[in-house]
Amino acid sequence: MKKMILILSVCLGMNTLIAQTSACGQFHKTECAMEGSKADRKAFAYNSQSKSGLFAQGSTSKMRCVVYKGMDYRMTVCCETNILGEKINFKIFDGRTQELLFDNAKNEDAPQFEFSAGSTRQLVIEVTVPMGEVKEQKGKPQDAACVGMLIEHKVAERTGFSQY
Question: Which of 8, 18, 145, 157 has the most crowded Cβ, counting Cβ within 10 A?
């Protein structure tokens, strides 16, 4: 009987985890604004390193991302504004040196950052979710919300004299 209860509680716990994960799994694709279209060759394209997740209020999470030389990137953070408001903090660090490259808190909490990669390197993106009012949402804890990090890329336009 004890084994049955243990197995049942593990299964229920996994169902809750799966429901919470699936509640935010594609949040960045549906809620973060992508500009341009696939037909426009100069527009940014979706980067598969984009991620979404369920964040507890007041928590911080990190993800790794590789950027390639000769590419332009746009990173957009978005969240359930009805739960968290619009101020999500994100920082971008060099993956090797841990040097802070960008902090949106120092840029009026801008939800978007565009840059050209001067070299191929690994970045660490740190997202911090503020504390806010708690509102109950179906399938999620009361003190959590979906957050998405949309990463887009395109081939950088050559400027200046080209080298041959």
Answer: 145
